[in-house]
Amino acid sequence: MSNTDAVDSEVSSSRAPASRFQTSHRLFSTLEGVFNEEVFFLILCVFIGIFSGLAVVCFRLAIDWTHLALLGPLPQTHSWRLFAVPSLAGLVVALLVLRVFPNIRGSGVNQTKAALYIFNGFIPFRTAIGKFICSAIAIGSGQSLGPEDPSLQIGASIASALGRQLQISREKLRLMAPVGAAAGLAAAFNAPISAVLFVIEEVIGRWSAGILGSVVLSAVSSVVIVRWFLGSEPLFRIPVTTFKGPAELLAYAVLGIVGGLASVAFAKSIGYLRPRLNRLPRWTQYLQPAVAGLLIGLIAFLGAPQVMGAGYDSMDQAMHGQYAWKFLAILAVLKILATTLSFASGAPGGMFAPTLFVGAMLGGAVGDIEHFFFPHLTVSTGTYVLVGMGVLFAGFLRVPMTSVFMVLEVSGNYEIIVPVMVANTFSYLISRSLQDVPIFDLLTRQDGLILPSLEEEREETILRVEDAMLPVPATILNAEDYVDANARRVQDSADSIFLVRMHPSGWNTISRDQLLRLFREGKGELTLGSVLPPQSLPALYPDLPLDAALRYVNDYPVVIVVNRANSRQLEGVISRESVFKKYGSARSGDGSYQGTP
Amino acid sequence: MSLRFPKLVPRSAPVILLVLTLAAATGFAAVNHLVARFTANQQARGRKLYRLGLGDANAGRYDDAIAAFRAALTCDPTNSEYQLWLARALRDSNDPRRLDEAESYLITLWQRSPQDAAVNLALARVAAHRGSIEDATRYYHNAMYGVWNADPDLNRTNARIELIKFLLNKGASKSAESELIALATSLPSDPAARLQAAQLFAQAGDDAGALARYEEVLHLEPSNPAALAGAGQSAYRAGNYAAAQQYLQAAINANPQDAKTLQLLASTTLVLRSNPFQSHISDAERNRRIAAAFAQSEKRLTECARQTGVDLTTEAPSPGSALSTLQSRWTATQPDLARLRSPAETDLPDTIMDLVFQVEQKTAAICGQPEGLDLALVLISQKGEASGQ
Fold it and tell me: Which residues of B touch A (CB under 8 A)?
């Protein structure tokens, strides 16, 4: 081989890696171009769903393992374990919560809301670890709590940590917690639609394509992960559910009323006991979960082990008519008591499962009683159990939309949508009328936080443009008319600003002084349109929120309000003064506006 | 204490996604390992509980079995076998409230595997517990034509036999007969199965079919006492008294303690000895049998009138007027007995026996089932009616 050949060979061998580097660099550059923040965020949501799903799978295994290790596969009444296990586990949980993992008390829904509204999406990752360990011990040992809310917070925590690590924008970081929450809840419930609705209805409170897309992506991907590992079996074996006819709606309405009253009792009992236990000396907080566990153990020992833990097996049996109505009613009352004790004691765990439990038992009891007195009116107890779940969800958690879809998603039966809607509406209305503050807002206020109440926001009467709208002015000038003619028209008018209809379309304004000055300057022979600037006034529609007018009233003396069907038809005008006057009257209470402007 | 991630991840989107993908894959593998181990442990625990449940179920301790199967299912919630056994225990526990839950488990299994014969059979039994003929028939048929893991022919036959028994218990004889016809074509050559089929034919009232099945059993096992007795009973009910006597006698020879067969044999023998229309008897014997039957009918009439308090001498209409009428006819016919020997009186035996049969049937209706010669005469009259039809 010649020297030249050797040099060529060296050059070519040194060129090859350089070329590969350039290729991969180009590829990365191209990919960088593809991944704008929106696209990147959506892909990130899928990963959040995957990580949350994996975490929830582990969480469920941890609960099952703890339950089996501590209580055995099927707790029997009159066993010493029923006392010992929840009490001792309560001590361990209290120690962990007070010493190692502060801020993991409660369900986790409020903490997620707080992350969104107060802490710029920040939830310490340590919260996820603490929630995982302590909730698994508490629920597995028989505290009357559920795994859904902790799953929600674990998901939110993972998402928040990931967002911080990747240094995404503050706006997106705020959204990370709800996105993770939806993933966690969807994985825990195996019900993506309900999870998405709950997060939007209770945590985020607003809809947009971006929010919906990200929440849906994370929820779906987490459910796929959970189903991959744990199977797609529903939480319950749904019995044959039937709807007999319109007359049966009366029976469901009764269930809604009873459920609404029970929801209020449930919420008030927690709202009453929790702050009182919190105010006790700090050393008692080490004992509170243990005492709660002891009392729950006593309930189980005396014949109702069904109240321990999440209670899905018992709900399943209630759905298949395994309990008489008296026992169902007793279980509903005992579960309210047990959950109040567990939750108020500070044991970490959720209220979703207990809510479903109480609703299921209450539904079964009401259904059985109604069937006894009106056998022609009702069909199967299983349907009432299912509807009862939604009723408590609507009344206690105050999430009417989620409650309907939750029942539909869990049952997979569209036929019961009408009974569910009727019963849930009654329950929701009764709960709202007897308990002003929804349970999550109540807990937030007890913790000293002021978070937006999404229910209150939903119920707000919004001020609209039409509320501040002034009548169409008597004198409207025409841009095609001459200045002198227009000047003559305004001479006797009391108004100082006049609307001008432009040709061929659009509106403008001119003041009386301006018009008279033009006339004096000898421009009377010109058309008004030719002397006015070409800008056009912004137009608003009467049904728009009044806030929309604020963008314009400082820049324009008047803003026109036009008909949605015909934009040339003038409905009225608004001015800065009319808008502020309306806000002022609303705040002083003579208007219908109830919110904070 | 605040837990922080090390900020090592480059800020380039493709690299971030690559790292996330690797992290997800690692997490997936780790969780997969964890789930596999947990599931294996749970399954082992579930099998132990399942075996306990099986023992309880086989011993009839259904409450304990249900608890054990439930516990097994908490360990292995998707196990079809546990679900099936739990459903069976729930169904067999004789608690109507548990039928719903049993059905729900079975429906879930059925939706997963609609061709599974065991699940269909279990569902059929739930429907049978509920008394739903339509559902039970549908599921029994599914079981018959479904997939069996072992002994498909035997299991299918047993399923059909179970369906027939259910239909007979519910009084759906027509449906039962249809199933019996199908059963007859698919019976194995096992004598026990054929004997059971013959008994079902008999239970359904198809005496000819039953006799044919019993004869098939006797062809395989000529001295089977149950088949001999069954064949005798079927022949007896079918009015084939000669064959009945033959089978019943053989049954008694095989099992002399069989009281019911003895009684039937006595009745059959009496029928054969009293029937004046039997072939291969002389005229004198025929006349003797007619005279004996005529005399017996008068005794039966008198006895029945005494039992019911009817005075046969009065002519006024009364509840016992039918008996009075028959008594009058009997008295009017009595002189005709002497003319039986005359070769010209060809219709007289029928006329006299018609009256005898009317007396026996009417008294049977008023005074209850007769015994002895009266019973034999009723049976002869029924056979005559059957042959007349």
Answer: 1-3, 5, 7, 9, 11-17, 20, 23-24, 27-28, 31-32, 34-35, 38, 42, 45, 49, 67, 70-72, 74-75, 77-78, 97-98, 100-101, 104-105, 107-108
